[in-house]
């Protein structure tokens, strides 16, 4: 099984740095394969808890190399919930890559474990008779301190449902659960890795150099 690893995160940082410099990123240093994947960017300000700056991926299998290249940029620059990440924010960023595995059809909306499973829900909006769907990665509910019901209700809102959430509606949810492997790296660790493996630190055109 393919697991998320350091080289995948390095490639995401490489891709973002290359974007700011209008150049090509160095080749990926991990094996290609077909897997669903996500890229998450968070920003650490004044030593506080990391704040989400972008998270986009695909629940369908993608080539890992092209997938991480695409979603590193999409999640950083085109997550509609946030303004695009600017080059000056790079030193404050951490990146997490997720490789999704073990898709299973759940028996009901509570048939999953917080911290272990990510969940995909699908249901029919009774107010508009439209299908809605949304997903949370395995770490979301645990990080938020949610119960299963709190996570499901939040997912229904994320899917765009604004009506009253009833137990009867929850029971009509179709759920797929999945697992994932993660790897997280802060920009400073990325810089150290690049120095060690390539002999020089990454440089952003027009940005002030920063010592680590």
From TrEMBL:
- Enumerate the spans annotated as AMMECR1 domain: 1-194
Among the Pfam families in the record, one is AMMECR1
Please give the name of this protein.
AMMECR1 family
Name the species this protein comes from.
Answer: Quillaja saponaria (Soap bark tree)
